[in-house]
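Sequence, structure tokens passed on for absentees:
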Amino acid sequence: MDKLTLLQFYRKAIEVVGFQEDKKEKSWMPKLGPNDFRSVVRQGSYRGKRAVIKVSPHENLLVIARDYEHYQKATIGQPVVKVPLILRSGKIKGAQYLIQQSAPDGGRILKNYPLSTRAEKEEVATLYWNTVSYFPEFYLGQWAVSDYFLERLDKWFAIGKENGAVKSGFISQKEKDRTAELIFSNLKKMKMEPFFTHFANTDIIKSSKKYYIWDSTIVPKPEAAGIALWIWGATLYAYKLPPARWLEEVRAWTRTFARLAPKSRQQNLRLKIRINLLERMLGSLLVDLPLKRSPFYKLSQKEVARATKMARAVLYSLL
């Protein structure tokens, strides 16, 4: 949706609910494409509490709020990543809104992102496995692992063909084919489970001994997708490093997640991480980098070339 129309929906929503904007903070508007925005996110207050409002014509925020509340109730008192309290959700004509209480002040888990210490890696892996272990059941519909990867790769291949990713040198046809072959030849070793859409250092706030995740809905994901999301998220910011140095980090992350995994999760774990990470790197090379999507939108062409070199190095290491 164009920016002006989306902001009109946003203004209507805050008028209806009485949300008070924090004038010192700018709104955040995630993009779907050029002048095509998914939502408006703004900090402020609601009924005397620090809060964040999200308004979107594209997302079913009522279902998202319901899923968050189910997760919150099921994980009370457990050492998992927390979802901020839901204060209100609803809809106006043409859009829906969701208001959540702001998380306490805090910082990120990794202080020198994308690099990390051994202790930080263990902290993240422990948080991930605790969260997976206590994650409540959700209805996954008819989703199979093949459905998930078919949908993702079909989307990436279509957009990559349109933007000329192969012709522009972001990825080779051979790499595309080999990636698809590896993914689809290993699906029988994986299953679907509920998890967050995003799981990266930039998505999580650490406050004291608690962790809060923002703007990351609960959806069907293949096993170990969260691990791949974490490694992929860090890779997006690693383009200034030598590829060989970053590949050491990728291997160290994989070892740490595998070493701290519960016994019930260890079977084929490295393979599951590899398959999920292949899909993520494929998406970056076919879509994110050619279209300069976040976090690449402010990079120079030289920096995009470095980021592409890094992404291809990680992809090639997985093939």
In short: Residues 269-288 form the longest helix (20 residues). DSSP finds nine helices and eleven strands in the chain. The mean pLDDT is 96.
